[in-house]
Predict the 3D structure of the following.
Amino acid sequence: MSEPQAIPHSVEDLKQAVQQVLDRAAGQGASAAEAAVSSDVGLSVTARLGEVETLEYHKDQGVGVTVYFGKRKGSASTSDLRPEAIDEAVQAACRIARYTAEDGCSGLADAELMAYDYPDLDLDHPWDINAERAIELAMNTEAAAQAVDARITNSDGASVNSFRGASVYGNSHGFIGGYAGTRHSLSCTVIGEQDGGMQRDYWYSVSRQPGELDSAESVGRLAAERTLRRLGGRKLSTRQAPVLFAADIARSLIGHFVGGVRGSALYRKASFLLDHLGEQIFPENIVMHELPHIPGALGSAPFDSEGVRTTAKDLVRDGILKSYVLDHYSACKLGMANTGNAGGVRNLIVEPTAGDLDSLLKEMGTGLFVTELIGHGINMVTGDYSRGASGFWVENGALAYPVEEITIAGNLRNIFRGIRAVGSDVDLRGSIRTGSILVDQMMIAGE
C-alpha cells in the first residue's frame, strides 16, 4: 500500500493487450473487431465519529472484446489480462457471433471518424497519499463539521477517495488510443438536531488534481452549515410558484434533456423529444455546447468509447435543438451522422444568462429554492416530471424558512420552455456544467 496510485498496467501494456485481441480475432476469421482494456487502482477511507469506519484499497482490470462476422456480433469479457485468458475471451466472442442474428447497423464506427491524432488533455494527476494521511484528512473534515455548532449531533461520516486508472480502446481500423486519468474527492455528511427535529446534509469537493480540492476544514464547515440551515423545516400548502434549482441540483434537469436527445431513446421512440431536432425547446437566450477538450476537466476525453474523435459542438443555440447525442449504432438506426457521443456527453456547458445566486433569488422574489431532490419520478416517454423536494421558501428575494416533504411537478417540455434564467454560479463538479436554474412556474404539492 506504499504506492496506492501506481497503475498495475501502463497504457503501453494495455495497447499490447488490445493488439493481441485484434490479431486473434482476425485469425479466427472475424471481419472486424474492437477491444477496450482498463487497469485502475484506488484508495477509499471513511471516518465516522472519530473512528475509521472503512478502509479500502483496490486494484481492478478488465478486457472487453467485440467481434463482427459481417453483421453478426459477439461480445465477451475477462478480468484476466494474461495472454491465454485474452485468447479465450476472443474465442468466446467469436463463438457467440456465429449464432447471433444479423443486424444491419452492427459494426465499427466509420474509419474516417477515428481519433488517429489526439491531444493530451492533462487528465492524469496522481495523489501521493497513503492510508494514514487519508484517515487524518477524513477525521479532520468530520471534526471541522462537528465544531461549527452544538446542534451538529451526529454524523454519517467523512470520506476521502483517490482513483487513478488507464484505459485503451482499439479496433481493426488500425486505431489504438489510450490515456491515464485521475479523480479525487473529499466529502462529509452530518446530522443536526433542534427541537426534536433532525436534518441531514452534505458537501463534497472533487477534482482530477489533489491540489485543487477544497480544504478539509472548508468541506466540513459547509456540510455543517448546509445541515443547520435546514433545521426547523416546514411544509407548504399546495400551490403554483416559481422554482429555483440550486446549481448542483439543476444538473439533473439538464441530464433529463440529454437523456431525451440520446440516440438509444430516439430510435426506440422512447423520448419526449423525438423528432424535435431544429425545434425550439428552450427560451431564445439558452445556449448549451459540448467542449470535450478542456484541459484537466472531469468530463474531458480525446475520443469517445468507439474511438471517434470528440469535437466541440452546440447542442442548443438560441433555444433551438441543434444536435442529438449519437453513437455509431443509434446514428445508423436513425439514418443520421455519428456525433462522437458513445459513452455520453463530455463537458456540456449551459451558458449563464444572469448573475449569481443572490441575483436569481432577487429576480424570483417569492418562490421555492430547491436544494435537494428525492426519488426518480420522470417518464422519459411523455416528459412528465414529479419528484420529492426540500429547500427554502423565498420571500422578497431572501430565504424565509426551510421547507420539506413537498413534491414539485410539471412536464419537462414546459419546464424547459419556462426557464427564466441560468445563474453564473456554475458547478464544475461533473460532465454537465450549469449554474442555478430559475423556472417560471411549477406545481408544488404539499399539505
About this structure: The first strand starts at residue 32 and ends at 48. The mean pLDDT is 96. Residues 11-27 form the longest helix (17 residues).
